[in-house]
Amino acid sequence: MIELKLLLECKDANIIMRSLNVDNVNFPEGMTIESNVKNNLLEITIRMQLKNANDILTVRNTADEILTHIKALRASLDSLS
């Protein structure tokens, strides 16, 4: 099993988590994603049972997609401030 944690500290952590949770559907087999916020710290944990070498790339691509969404969300939220 592989586990990857992403940590983001920001005042809009709850908003970002709720926005990302909408997209948390149809994961590849063996993958789970959990997220929580405590004291403006967003923690996202991606776990996946590795069945073949390409599964590591799947986890990386998922993390890249999440980070891309976070970047877009932060830009949108910053423009509203």
| Helicity level | 40-55%
Strand content range: 25-35%
Q: Which sheet architecture does the biggest sheet show?
A: 3 strands, antiparallel
What gyration radius follows from the Cα positions, in whole Å?
Answer: 13 Å
pLDDT < 50 runs, ≥5 residues:
none
Instruction: State the separation between the terminal residues, measured CA to CA.
Output: 41 Å
| Count of spatially separate domains | 1
Helix and strand sequence: EHEEH
Tell me the name of the CATH homologous superfamily. Answer: Alpha-D-phosphohexomutase, C-terminal domain
Level-1 CATH class name = Alpha Beta
CATH architecture descriptor text: 2-Layer Sandwich
Number of helices: 2
Shape: elongated
Organism: Sulfolobus tengchongensis
Family: Belongs to the CTAG/PCC1 family.
Pfam families: Pcc1 (PF09341)
Protein name: KEOPS complex subunit Pcc1
What can you tell me about this protein's structure?
The structure is a single chain. With 81 residues, this protein is of the alpha+beta class. The chain has one domain (2-80): 2-Layer Sandwich (TATA-Binding Protein), CATH 3.30.310.50. It is built from two helices and three strands; from the N terminus they run βαββα. The protein has helices at residues 13-21, 54-80; strands at 2-9, 31-38, 41-48. A three-stranded antiparallel beta sheet has the order 1-3-2, covered by helices on one side.
